[in-house]
Amino acid sequence: MTARAFITGAAGTQLTTDERAFLRDADPWGLILFARNVESPSQVSRLVAGFHEAVGRGDAPVLIDQEGGRVQRLGPPHWPSYPAGSAYGRLYETDRSGGLAAARLGARLIAADLDALGISVDCMPIADVPVADADSVIGDRAFGTTAEQVSAIAIAFAEGLVDGGVLPVLKHIPGHGRAAADSHHRLPVVSTDRRTLEATDFAAFRPLAGLPLAMTAHVVFSAIDSIAPATTSATMVREVIRGSIGFDGMLMSDDLSMNALSGTMAERARAVIAAGCDVVLHCNGRLDEMQAIAAEVPRLSGRAAARASAALASRRRPTDIDLAATRDELASLMMEHREAGNRRHDG
Length: 347
What we know:
By secondary structure, the protein is of the alpha/beta class. Helices cover 41% and strands 13% of the residues. The protein has an 8-stranded parallel barrel with strand order 1-2-3-6-7-9-11-12, surrounded by 5 helices. The chain has a two-stranded antiparallel sheet with strand order 4-5.
């Protein structure tokens, strides 16, 4: 029997008795971790193992947002800090090959951190292309401000994760960079014409359409669907994400508990599945909401099940690397960029 079509959170650093029972009965496809779930390497490893034991699937994916910069759930003192996406972008602008190498190395190191804990999926890379008047929710998380640069660095970052045995999640498809509001707090509406969107926002995602997993944007694109955000819009999923962009991997929603969406959790879950997303994502760890969602979403079947299976099957064994030497190499690349920037500023 296949897993149920949702990814769930957990409340704390260890699973409660009620959470274990819920996971056993509801059988979610995966678990996503946040800072509230992280205390130490041994604790995270126990939490991951507890999830696998509860659902009875040792390959059940465990996800995390480990981007670098201001979005990384694992951090000091137990894990290194990593550069924000914009740092790779700035290096790329002065040294294209150096920027791509740094992104690949940073992702490979992140993958090593995650793989050691049993975390198999990183919600990266971001292919959002921010514009000058957009909300700062994307901001320095982005790899640049052009579709070409963003997609090039995102590909390198995804390659680094894959080389480290971790599956990448392309986000936030078909683009959050133009949004003038943070979808955590309210629903952004983008009124840009479709021709411009196709040439900019959507264009950044096309070179990454072959990735196994992607996460939607809670953003309304009024030129295409004037009412529903991409997450719950059958038109956006069919015409843009699956059509224009060409993504045919497993599509998950962004977090259902974000304020951009309306309705009860059950209503949101039904809308996500009806729109054509394969899997519902719910992150806040509230058991009552998790139960409401589990009651609404189906078990994976048909194309959704095939996409989910293909995603898990695409995970590779990590390549061998010297972690200390790789960290030194990444630091050297980033230092060269900073020194070059200082020389330009002094001149």
